[in-house]
UniProtKB/TrEMBL annotation:
The keyword Phosphoprotein applies. Its EC number is 2.7.13.3. The keyword Nucleus does not apply. It catalyses: ATP + protein L-histidine = ADP + protein N-phospho-L-histidine. This is histidine kinase. Residues 14-120 form the Cyclic nucleotide-binding domain. InterPro entries: cNMP-bd_dom (IPR000595), cNMP-bd_dom_sf (IPR018490), HATPase_C_sf (IPR036890), HATPase_dom (IPR003594), His_kinase_dom (IPR005467), HisK_dim/P_dom (IPR003661), HisK_dim/P_sf (IPR036097), RmlC-like_jellyroll (IPR014710). Pfam families: HATPase_c. Keywords: Phosphoprotein. Residues 254-461 form the Histidine kinase domain. CDD domains: CAP_ED (cd00038), HisKA (cd00082). It comes from Hymenobacter lapidiphilus. It is an enzyme of class 2 (transferase). GO terms for molecular function: phosphorelay sensor kinase activity.
Length: 463
């Protein structure tokens, strides 16, 4: 089979431009490995001592804790392992055959000879490395974005749940309210209640304003109103007395109404007026719930920068921060973290790629929340100020701090201090690249009890 391998390699796009003599040398310096389905070619921590070219079958690379998610899928003609000028020393994931496969293994110790004598072959293998780095980085960045989206989606679902539940409760209360109205209206018609009588009853609520009463005082007023209603044989005295007490209606107002309307019509009139007031209050609650949902949806739209051109536009920097905080509000509440905000009111619009910059706010705020989890008096602070022609944004927390050795590597690609599954190691690398894309800079200052990430962004767009 070895004699046929140079021609087989020449048939793969990767080696199509490599002279046959170089492919013959490559095959002669290599060895064949047969892998059964499920057999590992490399495991995490294994020294990488060969360049591998897959000749037959399928091999996939995955993280040990996430075997269902491929980092890399190798098909016949693909190369992996040690590549010329690569600094990789050990495997970071599992490389495993998914079916019976054949691999050509070229020893790393002959790479210097390869680079010195076989230019086209070296060039082909180097192109694999550069393409692989680009593809892997893009995939990891997408994973980071998806993780952020997952966190925000969970937060959005949590935030929407409360107004949706309130709206459902309100509509059910309105349904019950509407079901009882025909009977009350029928009684009023039978009793020949006039529009003036109805106006007088409704005036109990229209003429009053919601009273801010001490709990004990309000409870006493509610009891007095309930007694008055029971004495005058008004049905459903309990709920009606609660409504009247909320509006601060005095007993004297009820006495005045009783003097103006027929005694038989007093009960139905008060029921009708109470139902009218209760309906108004329920509609206010529904409007508040829908308003909250509208605001959350608007926050998502602004956060993702929908319907906008992918160019830098001058925007209110604070709006993006507030929208991100709105989507993370559930996590602040869940962890019992206090939020402190101090914004520079005179900060002018800053030219931003809004969608990308919102990823920065998400990463920094989410990291700060993780840092203060379980800390007594946990606090996250967002502070902005202007320094000449730069906007400064500081996100700080009172967590345990970042050790100096970690601070030196914290912006390195794929470096993470989070538990497996909680971070890809590209969060702060992505933050730094987005900030630099805006002509800005980011730095970290940390000690036990205080960590601050400070971003500097130019207020004027770069020429």
């Amino acid at each position: 089979m070895l004699a046929e391998l140079p021609d087989m390699l020449a048939g793969f796009p990767l080696f199509a431009a490599v002279p046959r003599a170089q492919l013959v040398w490559f095959v002669a310096a290599s060895s064949l490995r047969e892998l059964a389905a499920g057999q590992r070619l490399l495991a995490p921590g294994d020294a990488i001592e060969h360049t591998y070219v897959l000749l037959r079958g399928t091999v996939h690379l995955f993280e040990p804790l996430r075997p269902a998610v491929d980092i890399l899928l190798l098909q016949p003609g693909d190369a992996t392992g040690y590549l010329p000028f690569s600094r990789i020393k050990t495997a970071g994931g599992v490389m495993q055959a998914s079916e019976s496969s054949t691999v050509l293994a070229f020893p790393k110790i002959r790479t210097q000879e390869l680079a010195a004598q076989h230019f086209e072959l070296t060039q082909a293998l180097v192109s694999v490395m550069t393409s692989r780095v680009r593809e892997t980085t893009a995939q990891q960045q997408q994973n980071e974005k998806m993780m952020a989206l997952g966190k925000l989606s969970a937060g959005l679902a949590h935030e929407l749940n409360n107004p949706i539940a309130a709206l459902a409760s309100t509509t059910e209360a309105l349904r019950r309210q509407a079901a009882g109205l025909p009977a009350v209206l029928g009684q009023l018609l039978v009793l020949a209640a006039t529009p003036a009588h109805a106006e007088a009853a409704a005036g109990l609520f229209a003429g009053a304003t919601a009273a801010v009463l001490a709990r004990l005082v309000r409870a006493e007023l509610e009891d007095e109103l309930a007694d008055w209603l029971a004495e005058h044989r008004v049905p459903e005295a309990g709920p009606l007395s609660e409504l009247l007490a909320e509006r601060g209606v005095a007993l004297a107002a009820l006495d005045a109404l009783a003097a103006r309307v027929p005694a038989a019509a007093l009960g139905p009139l008060l029921q009708w007026a109470g139902a009218h007031e209760h309906t108004r209050r329920l509609l206010d609650e529904a409007r508040e719930a829908t308003g909250r949902m509208t605001q959350l949806i608007r926050s998502v739209k602004v956060y993702t920068h929908m319907d906008q051109a992918p160019d830098k536009v001058p925007v209110d920097l604070h709006e993006g921060i507030r929208n991100t905080l709105a989507l993370l509000a559930h996590k602040f509440r869940q962890l019992g973290v206090r939020l402190e905000e101090a914004y520079e009111p005179a900060l002018p619009p800053v030219p931003l790629l809004v969608g990308e910059m919102n990823q920065v706010w998400t990463n920094l705020l989410d990291n700060a929340l993780d840092a203060v989890e379980g800390v007594a008096g946990a606090t996250v602070r967002v502070h902005t100020r202007r320094d000449r022609e730069f906007a400064h944004i500081i996100v700080s927390d009172n967590g345990g701090g970042i050790p100096p050795a970690v601070q030196a590597r914290i912006f390195d690609p794929f470096f993470t201090t989070k538990a497996p599954g909680r971070g890809t190691g590209l969060g702060l690398d992505l933050v730094q690249r987005i900030v630099r894309q805006h002509g800005g800079a980011i730095k970290v200052r940390s000690q036990p009890g205080h960590t601050a990430f400070e971003i500097h962004l130019p207020i004027a767009a770069a020429p």
